[in-house]
Amino acid sequence: MHMVHQLKVEMMRMMSHRRLFIWLIILLVPSLIQYNMVKEGYVYFRPVEFYQELLSGFIPLLFPLFMIVIYADNIVSERKHDFILYTRTRIWLPSYIWSKIIVNALMSFVLSFLLVFLPFLFVFYIEPHLSFVTYSPVGTNTLSATTFDQLLSYGTFIYGVTYASWVAVNGVVYATLTMLLVLAIRNPLLSLALPFLWYHISNFVFAILKIEIYSPLFTIFPFGIEQQELWTILIPYSILCLFIGITALYLYKKPYEWMN
After folding, report:
1. Which of 15, 153, 215, 250 has the smallest count of CB within 10 Å of its CB?
2. Which burial class, exposed, middle or buried, applies to 68 when counting CB atoms under 10 A from its CB (0-12, 13-18, 19+)?
3. Which alpha helices (H) appear in the chain, and where do they start and end?
4. Spatial contact of 196 and 64, defined as CB atoms under 8 Å apart
5. DSSP code per residue over 66-113
């Protein structure tokens, strides 16, 4: 019961007007900007191509940053003012930390899911009635295929929900890793920057090594490369899960080094 109460407290603390405004900007502004950039001047044969182009701009570029600002900055402030140290006298610390991790994971899942699912709903179910985008007849043109397109054979909605869920799972991983790093590393700038740096630097390194199919960007937003087997998307995801496990183990083994 105590944990349930703490989760409710943490959820209410998260729902500030400032944070809700930030989330609204994350959900709407990148998609609106990209929409105005790609609705004209491109040749589209299918709605899925327009959808993928809609997710090929600001969203993949800033995705880790979006996950960082969901809630990890809150615990940065608490560490800066030694709030965690004083909290130990009033509440069981594992319950306090776990409540933050769980709420952060929950909200990162919801927001990253909506980040790609709202554009999906617009492209496939709203835009056809508005006809803002003109689709060219396929004719003899060869249609390109990207990873996750194989899910279209199960239905458009299954494709949209499955892909949005995959993005949401990755959002949870980046948000959770960031929060754990904030606890493990005293330098807040470094702890917040590491997931973002991993995301972009590894993309660059993987491209040099010609294994970009395993890069974080192309396994979450695989619209810039040809279709790959679905198992390839698990490579960087598994690496990040390993990082989370190592960081969590460090925090468990060295509690007094990060509590103080």
Report:
1. 153
2. buried
3. 2-14, 17-38, 47-54, 58-80, 83-87, 93-121, 127-130, 156-184, 188-208, 216-220, 234-253, 255-259
4. yes
5. HHHHHHHHHHHHHHHTTHHHHHTTTS-HHHHHHHHHHHHHHHHHHHHH
What distances in angstroms separate CA 206 from CA 40, 63, 198, 202, 231, one per listed residue? 32, 18, 11, 6, 17
Rounded to whole angstroms, the Cα distance separating 134 from 132 reads 7
Phi/psi at 87 (5° precision): -65, -25
User: CA 216 to CA 185: how far, in whole Å?
Assistant: 23
Q: Rounded to a whole number, what is the distance in angstroms from the first to the last CA of the chain?
A: 27
The one-digit pLDDT tens for each residue of the chain (260 residues) are 567 777 787 788 777 788 888 889 999 999 999 988 888 878 888 888 899 999 988 899 999 989 888 877 777 766 665 556 566 556 666 777 788 888 889 999 999 999 999 999 999 999 888 888 888 887 656 567 788 888 888 999 999 999 999 999 999 999 999 989 988 888 888 888 899 999 999 999 988 988 888 889 989 998 878 878 888 889 999 999 999 999 988 887 766 555 55
Sign of the C-alpha dihedral, residues 100, 93, 185, 85?
Answer: positive
